[in-house]
Amino acid sequence: MKFNSTKIILSLVAILTSSLLLTLNSCAPTKDIAAKSGVLLWSENCQRCHNTPSPSAFSAESWETIGMHMQTRALLTTEEKDKIVNFLKSSK
After folding, report:
1. Are residues 52 and 46 in contact, defined by beta-carbon separation less than 8 angstroms?
2. Domain ranges of the chain
3. For residues 65 and 36, what is the distance between their CA atoms, to the nearest angstrom?
4. Which of 12, 44, 46, 55 is the most exposed place for a label (fewest CB within 10 A)?
5. Are 84 and 41 in contact (CB under 8 A)?
């Protein structure tokens, strides 16, 4: 029995690509971002990876810095990040 390495590699690439697309689609927002509040976005996004700290845990300036960092890490849009940060700064 002779294996065609090109076919095996292409099959593996297809499987990995399909898995990645399914994973990305399962993380897609279910509602329009514009309709979501900062508190809803905060609970949906921040709790995916860690326990959410109290809004009073950091200063307004710190939340701005944390928001910029987490926008990159959590793949948030600028609108999502702004809503979350504004909620956290106003909830002190």
Report:
1. yes
2. 35-92
3. 22
4. 12
5. yes
- How many helices (H) and strands (E) the chain has is answered by 4, 0
Block residue for tokens 């990876």 = 49
User: What's the pTM?
Assistant: 0.63
Distance CA 88, CA 57 (A): 10
- CA 25 to chain CA mean position, Å: 12
DSSP 61: H
As to burial, measured by CB atoms within 10 angstroms (0-12 exposed, 13-18 middle, 19+ buried), residue 64 is middle
Q: How far apart are CA 44 and CA 40, in angstroms?
A: 6
